[in-house]
Task: structure prediction
Amino acid sequence: MKYFSTRDKSKSHPFSLAEAAFAGLAPDGGLFMPERIPMVDMARVEAEAEKSYADMALYLASLLFDDVPMADLERVVRQAYDFPIELNQVGDKYSTLELFHGPTYAFKDFGARFMGRMTGLLNEGGPLTILTATSGDTGSAVAHGFYGVDGVRVVILYPEGKVSPLQEAQMTTLGGNIYPLRVKGNFDDCQRLVKSMFRNEELRSQVRVTSANSINLLRWIPQSFYYFYGYCAWKRMTGDDMPTVVVPSGNYGNLTAGMLARCMGLSIKGFVAASNANDVVPKFLLTEEYSPRASVQTVANAMDVGDPSNFERMMYLCGDDVAALKSFVKGFACSDDEILAAINEINEHYDYMSDPHSAVGYLASKAYGESGFYLSTAHAAKFSEVTQMATMQSAPIPDRLASMMQKPRNFTPMEAEDDVLADYLRKL
Ligand SMILES: *Cc1c(COP(=O)(O)O)cnc(C)c1O
Result:
């Protein structure tokens, strides 16, 4: 399998998997896609899903990464997917696919853990440094995704005083090959520093650096796998084989991965693109005009994106046919007040504590009333300030999170200066 940029319509510049993975973004500014979308054998998917998530993921990965030897792929998926995934009921009317039982309690573990292991496998040129800036959640998923991967070290820049204590604990208590840098500055400073390292030719001739961006196809493609698993669980639970899937969305990696699954032959009736006040895509689905704008801050802050990077994948997967897209993707948007009221409602009516992002999924399910399920993208305990505000109760903290909070934190404090960071990377 070769991989092409979304902008290379004539498919004239093929990339190998390793090239696409280490480049992240295509040189022409587009996003990488597989050259062709393989069709699945659904009987096989269902049989593998009965065995385990990892077995099912291995079959699907073998179709999309067919140049990687099976034994290697098997090691990757078994190491990456050693945590549960559950289709749960919320009252008797709603179902949700809980994607938050991984090490960082958010669905990004599905992409980041696969990417971490695959990067270790594909890396052939000596030690590799993953350089990433984070406002909180991505950093912890990447740190855990690459933790313990041979030949790879991860340098994470996060802004001092701007991430929650829990997020900081998730990045700074691992040790090993994870190097957290607490930067005196804000998230934009962290991003600026990372970009300046990638532009620094002299540094790059001395240190091999790459990014772990969310648009990287090693993070994006494996997110299509849990749609298959959710479908199988849904079919077993209800007998229905045409679910509508509601996807709480921000940068649209999650929803476009669902579209990929559908293109591979998964029977999904449609999707709901569920957003907070950052409603560019729902607006686009109404007006057919795409008007990106600056993001606004909400209580579901992992979805605060005003110009989603994966919009280009969305258009690619529908062949730029907006009418076709609208026939199976509906939009939904809601305000902070509605999110807070929904968290309280779910808690009171169904005795279920929801995080603010998943609550957007619940609201969209309620608005459309279609048979199917919504994705729950984070554990409520990760957003306890918000759930507390909504319900006046605190969410129970899972043991694993509580013990992480007790561990000593190790990080390097750093001034937001290019030279200081370049020097640090050289000496690492
Ligand atoms: C990243 C994230 C989202 C948004 O996912 P996209 O793929 O960017 O649309 C939703 N919820 C949580 C908890 C997240 O961390």
